[in-house]
Amino acid sequence: xxxxxxxxxxxxxxxxxxxxxxxxxxxxxxxxxxxxxxxxxxxxxxxxxxxxxxxxxxxxxxxxxxxxxxxxxxxxxxxxxxxxxxxxxxxxxxxxxxxxxxxxxxxxxxxxxxxxxxxxxxxxxxxxxxxxxxxxxxxxxxxxxxxxxxxxxxxxxxxxxxxxxxxxxxxxxxxxxxxxxxxxxxxxxxxxxxxxxxxxxxxxxxxxxxxxxxxxxxxxxxxxxxxxxxxxxxxxxxxxxxxxxxxxxxxxxxxxxxxxxxxxxxxxxxxxxxxxxxxxxxxxxxxxxxxxxxxxxxxxxxxxxxxxxxxxxxxxxxxxxxxxxxxxxxxx
Length: 332
Hints:
mainly alpha
């Protein structure tokens, strides 16, 4: 029948599936060794890139589980290849091969082995769609539990990730201890999402070592926020020390940006007097002026600069009445 079961097609597919699984397993094994060296290098840095190493370790565990599942699927393909005659002449699936056939059909879409897809089609044509549905739904628990666990989409537990990191450090002789201690509940749960506590400060410019004292220290649990406080960006700038102003002038004595006290003289108590008239007498031999100044106990030097001194002294000096009297005397 066209499109039905054909043992001459199933047998070579089983043989090629064994070889394909072996090639895929060897390729993943080589990549795993390289990934382990990279993880060891991350943990040997100062500071260690712990969060990135945990993500790589989770991928390492998944590939390790895939290789383990590959080995089991390879054994099942070899067994069916040897019993191809029994399968061909039996109308129903032999009881001891139900788990093997069902596991291969269930894993066909979960691994990158194209031969398993053709094997699944051949067994569906041989045993019917109901047999395929029971295999995909694991009716009666017929699937290989170990294969189902290793090909599960659920992430590994956090304790398993940490155990992998510790074993890698032992193998490559790297001194490392986890910065975040896991609680009992966190050990059985999947690894928490990274929050960046292991990311170096200012790694682009290379100034992380100088800014490290300003960075907060992570002391909380892996699943929560850090308990330290995040510093202000202004903490990276060092202000000058306080200076004492020894020169007078009302210095603040604090930092350079403090407000400076400036001396402002007080306003004169009376109206301003014209300085051009008071600057010098109209005639140098005015006897009345000399007598007036002599009577008031002032010399001729004061006669030349007395008015200007009175104008600049503010409240100290001659009063307004005295200045007015002098002005009247000059007008005579």
